[in-house]
Amino acid sequence: MIFVYAFIVGGIICVIGQVLMDIFKLTPAHTMSTLVVAGAILDGVGLYEPLINLAGAGATVPITSFGNSLVHGAMAEAEQHGIIGIITGIFEVTSAGISAAIIFSFLAALVFKPKG
After folding, report:
1. Which residues cross the membrane (predicted)?
2. Alpha helices (H) along 45-82
3. CA-CA distance, 63 to 32, in Å (whole number)?
4. Which residue among 28, 59, 75, 78 is buried most deeply as judged by most CB within 10 Å?
5. How many domains does the chain have?
6. Residue 61, domain member (yes or no)
7. How far apart (Å, rounded) are the C-alpha atoms in residues 77 and 73?
8. Does 116 reside within a domain?
């Protein structure tokens, strides 16, 4: 049943993104930013963690999960280290994913010839 929930929740997130682009005429950058902020707000009010427990990858794979990670890391570190933990928590939780994206995109740029 987890696969069905993952499909439904991930699909709903994607539909929301598509509606933002098609109906509200937002650019892909604005849509992505909106979804990241939505994930951050949902985690801030405590609603994203139950969504992850329900849908698994349907909630952790879309871009909304990045906003969730930012807020989740900041809040966890703020509890331990105070105000400075907000800044360090953001970098601590998301650094591996961002570093991997930079490394793999650099390697792809070396291997493939860009068109332009």
Report:
1. 6-24, 83-112
2. 48-55, 57-60, 64-81
3. 7
4. 59
5. 1
6. yes
7. 6
8. no
Q: 41: which 2 tokens? A: 């707000």
The mean pLDDT of 49-77, rounded to a whole number, is 94
- pLDDT band at residue 65, thresholds of 50, 70 and 90? very high
**8 is a domain residue:** yes
Domain that holds residue 61: 2-111
**Cα atoms found within 13 Å of the Cα of residue 48, Cβ hemisphere only:** 28
End-to-end CA distance of the chain: 45
And the tokens for 28?
């892909």
Whether 19 is in a domain gets the answer yes
Token couple for 91: 């970098």
Predicted confidence (pLDDT) per residue in 68-100, tens digit: 999 989 999 999 999 999 888 888 888 888 888
